[in-house]
């Protein structure tokens, strides 16, 4: 791309008073969207008591937001490149704030799932524009790496901050407050953004290919539904069919991109090891983080009996470790090859799961709080370091004018990892708990069914039982949940162990 075209992506660089001030404002929607990925985790017990959803509905409450986000990130990134990244940010902010209010006052589980889907639509307008604006604002590679480290730290730590923020709000207000928190933050963003953010677009933008956009969304829906179904019911029926359909749709999408003169995604980028490896690292890192938070939030509240606020504070050391690790790798990668940094980071994440697996081995009803804190520090530090390096490799692989599409690929990997972390590890945990729970005699059919659905359901049922029977049910439920944590953690260890050689192979030539 010639120099005039590169400059044209920022319509008026003279209007950019400080790229660092712009970065600070861009972090507002970044934090919100990533917090929304996990803020629901600590609110689930209260939501379960208030709306009485089933186990599958609870998983969809968590999954539908990142699922829709993942399916729409690439189309929204392409639209932002064409019509303006700041414009897309402002539109997405208004919609996200409105849907947050709808979610906060959802009267049923179904309504909350629908509202979370709406949040995913508008969240997809926000995320590609933030990273692509950073790519356009910071033309110096060293400064851009630092800016991306700040962005990645905000994105990754936002997911870990979700339970802490949720815990604080739930200690003071009802569960809907975890959604309403978005409104004042986005009002502040809408007030500041027009003054500190320049408009940026691809000067040679092309119309959105609706067929490609539809193929992306269908493939994401089919694959995640298939994984959830197979994880719960085995490789039979609709789950396997959905996986096949999703895979076929992906093949059709790739073939279409190769034929188009102006593809939505330049799929040829995936033929290069550093690019495909960085995308894979994004996915696996977030998979580990979200899967961990899914069961630890329940462990702290429903097993240890902590209030949401105190449970969230138990994760604060991990959040700090994630931020510090993300920033520390910026000077480090000048001296150490990216492949070494990423492999060590992935190994640290696996060590976090190993600590949990060893503690939960033998079906212990509880994993100690100190063990949880140590495990999360190891895992979070690994995620923070890996995310910084991988995002820098991704956005640096394309010209500035196509930064929106590249950013969307990076964030799609993030959201797919979020969905898979809940769908696979969450479903395995839930299924193991249900299979291994031995309900004591004397419960009604309805009470036994509620106890088998979720750990929160068992806690609710104990309030309806005599003391002795309630204690017996709680011990049985904690034992079954501990077995699920042990199995889930071992799977996390295995996936982390497998990801290290994959990263070593794909990133060996990255500089």
SSE inventory with pairings:
Blueprint: H1 3-8, H2 19-51, H3 55-83, H4 85-104, H5 109-137, H6 141-172, H7 177-180, H8 182-196, H9 210-233, H10 237-259, H11 273-303, H12 308-313, H13 316-332, H14 338-360, H15 369-395, H16 403-436, H17 445-453, H18 455-462, H19 467-506
Helix pairs in contact: 2-3, 2-5, 2-6, 2-8, 2-11, 3-4, 3-5, 3-9, 3-16, 4-5, 4-8, 5-6, 5-16, 6-11, 6-13, 6-15, 9-10, 9-16, 11-14, 11-15, 11-16, 11-19, 13-15, 14-15, 14-19, 15-16, 16-19, 17-18, 18-19
Describe the structure.
Helix 11 (273-303) packs antiparallel against helix 15 (369-395), helix 17 crosses helix 18 and helix 18 packs antiparallel against helix 19 (467-506). The protein folds into 2 domains: 3-208 and 264-506, MFS general substrate transporter like domains (Growth Hormone, Chain: A, Up-down Bundle), CATH 1.20.1250.20; 209-263. The radius of gyration is 22 Å and the shape is globular. By secondary structure, the chain is mainly alpha-helical. The relative contact order is 0.14. Residues 1-8 have low confidence and may be disordered. It starts with a helix and ends in a 5-residue tail after the last helix. The protein is built from 19 helices and no strands.
